Amino acid sequence: MKFYEATIDIVFDVYEEDKDVEFKKEYNTFSQTNDDVVGQWLRNAKARGETKDSDMVLLTLLVELHRKVDTLTKIVNNEIKKRLELSFSTTICGINFDGFEIEEALFEKDKTYYCRVALPVFPQRDIAIFVKAISNNGAKISLMHESDEKDWNGYVRARERAMIRELKAKA
C-alpha cells in the first residue's frame, strides 16, 4: 500500500462488544445532519436553487462563523456534549484512500478500532471512523460517514498533489 505523508492527530480505542452501543452512538453524533441546523438550511437552500446568485465562498464563511457562535454559546451555557474517553492518542503519518499508518506500533493486527481523527480540511473538524488493523501501525477504514469520506478523499488527493510537486522540485 502506498501512503502519502501527512500529520494528523488521532485518538482511538479497541472496539469491544460491550462498548458497541457507546461507540455507535458517538459515531452517529458525528454525522453532519445531526445538530447542524445551519448546515441543513444551507443544503436545503442549495437544493431549491436559492443560492445560485450568492457568492458561495462568502456564504460558506458566514455559515462557519455562525457555527462558531453556536459553539461558543454552548460553551457559555455549559451545553458541551461529552465525548468518550479513548485509550490511545498518536499521530497519523501516512494516508491513502483506504486507510492510514500511525507513528507508533499501537495496533494489534486484525482487531477493530473506533477512532476520532482531526481532519485538517475547511471547516476543520473531527471525524469518527471504524478501522481494522492490518499491521501494528497500519489500518484499513471500514466505516466512515459519506460526507467525511468525500473530505478524506479530497485531503488524500491534496497530499498526493503536494508530494508530486515536491518530487518535481527535487528533479
Structure description:
The protein is α+β, with helices and mostly antiparallel strands and 171 residues long. Helix content is 39%, strand content 27%. It contains four helices and six strands, in the order βαααβββββα. Strands 1-2-3-6-5-4 form a six-stranded antiparallel β-barrel. Strand 2 and strand 3 form a beta hairpin. The two termini are 24 Å apart.
Explain briefly what this protein structure is.
With 171 residues, the protein is of the alpha+beta class.
Secondary-structure map with pairings?
Elements: E1 4-14, H1 20-29, H2 37-47, H3 56-76, E2 88-95, E3 99-102, E4 112-119, E5 125-133, E6 138-144, H4 146-170
Low-confidence stretches are none
- Domain module tally: 1
Q: Into which percent range does the helicity of residues fall?
A: 25-40%
Report the structural category: alpha+beta
- Using only CA atoms, what is the Rg? 18 Å
Strand content: 25-35%
Side-by-side strand order of the widest sheet? 1-2-3-6-5-4
Order of helices and strands: EHHHEEEEEH
End-to-end Cα distance: 24 Å
Shape: globular
Instruction: Give a count of the beta strands, DSSP E runs of length 2 or more.
Output: 6
Oligomeric assembly: single chain
On the 0 to 100 scale, the average pLDDT is 88
Largest sheet: 6 strands, antiparallel, barrel
Number of helices: 4
